[in-house]
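// run 5 | inverse folding | seed 20
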């Protein structure tokens, strides 16, 4: 694991003559190397590539690539996070980041059921929810939260009369035709020291 101040510099130099193809061992593409978490490969720029040759020697290509840290933190999204529990905040932020067309996510509110008052649920409001585009967007959001069920500690999602859980879905009179309701198992209330990652 890399430390926070670690930087890895990759230097590639070759003794391969210019007039022949390099072997796979001499020229492994960067795609064959999986970068460590939270970094990306920055290719060598024009000022980092040089052809060098000593008198009477074949030319060699020298270039440098490097890893650059990627900020993996999720910024606060469109939902008010006041009163939400940590897994619910994570789900709200991730949905905001993944679906920038979402402009409103409701959270804590009075309700006869415990999920919204206890910060366990959010309502992702769908623009034009009865249009084909709105329905498709709601479907995409449900698919997204189900793919991330473990990460969000997902309890359920409700959209267009269907109740979805990580174990499956069932239809019925569940309503929710203008928003996707997402319930998490909470994870406790934030302390202020949480970091929410993509």
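// decoded
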């Amino acid at each position: 694991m890399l430390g926070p101040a670690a930087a890895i510099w990759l230097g590639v130099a070759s003794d391969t003559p210019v007039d022949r193809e390099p072997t796979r061992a001499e020229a492994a593409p960067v795609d064959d190397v999986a970068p460590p978490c939270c970094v990306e490969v920055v290719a060598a720029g024009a000022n980092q590539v040089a052809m060098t040759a000593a008198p009477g020697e074949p030319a060699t290509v020298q270039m440098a690539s490097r890893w650059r840290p990627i900020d993996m933190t999720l910024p606060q999204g469109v939902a008010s996070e006041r009163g939400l529990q940590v897994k619910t905040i994570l789900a709200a932020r991730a949905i905001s980041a993944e679906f920038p067309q979402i402009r409103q996510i409701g959270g804590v509110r009075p309700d006869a059921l415990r999920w919204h008052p206890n910060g366990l649920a959010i309502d992702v409001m769908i623009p034009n929810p009865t249009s084909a585009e709105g329905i498709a967007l709601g479907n995409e959001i449900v698919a997204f939260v189900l793919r991330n069920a473990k990460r969000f500690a997902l309890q359920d999602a409700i959209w267009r009369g269907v109740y979805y859980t990580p174990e499956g879905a069932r239809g019925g009179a569940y309503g929710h035709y203008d928003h996707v309701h997402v319930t998490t198992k909470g994870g406790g209330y934030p302390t202020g020291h949480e970091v929410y990652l993509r």
